[in-house]
Structure formats: structure tokens, C-alpha cells
Amino acid sequence: MVRAFIMVKTAAGKSATLQERIAEMSAIESAHVVAGKYDVIAEAVGEEVYEVINTVASDVHDLDGVVDTRTYICLE
To answer: Do 6 and 44 contact (CB within 8 A), yes or no?
Structure first.
């Protein structure tokens, strides 16, 4: 099992809507609006690293209002 945290920077006023859309994705376990450099933090899981990366590259990053993403794969 691969686990990763996805940091999402959103356009102004889009955080809550994007958090809801991200939370509905099959590979996402949870998503939260946060204060700081990024606006949403999501936790993704998959059987392979490819599944997690694909979720970020194809699903999250392509949402309207997503400005930038950073993905951190858990090593433990």
C-alpha cells in the first residue's frame, strides 16, 4: 500500500469547492482546507505508486481552480 499527501494551491475562493471534489475521488482518503502556503491537503492511497501519481497528474491537477500541487510519498 502506498500513501501520499497532496498539497494543493487553489485560485482565490475555490478552496472549499475543490476540497469537496478532491474528497470524492476514489484514491483520496481525506481532504482538508488548511491555512498556509497551500489551501487543501489530501491523503491518497493506492496499491502502487503509479495509482497515486496518476490521481495527482490526471485527476487533481486538471480540476478548474487548481494552481499548483506538490505530492509527498510516505516512506514508512
So the answer is: yes
Per the CB < 8 A criterion, the answer to whether 33 and 15 are in contact is yes
What is the Cα gyration radius of the chain? Answer: 11
Mind listing the pLDDT tens digit for each residue in 34-63?
999 999 999 999 998 888 888 887 889 899
Global pTM reads 0.91
Write out the DSSP string of 9-72.
EE-TT-HHHHHHHHHTSTTEEEEEE-SSS-SEEEEEEESSHHHHHHIIIIIITTSTTEEEEEEE
> 2-73: what fold?
Alpha-Beta Plaits (3.30.70)
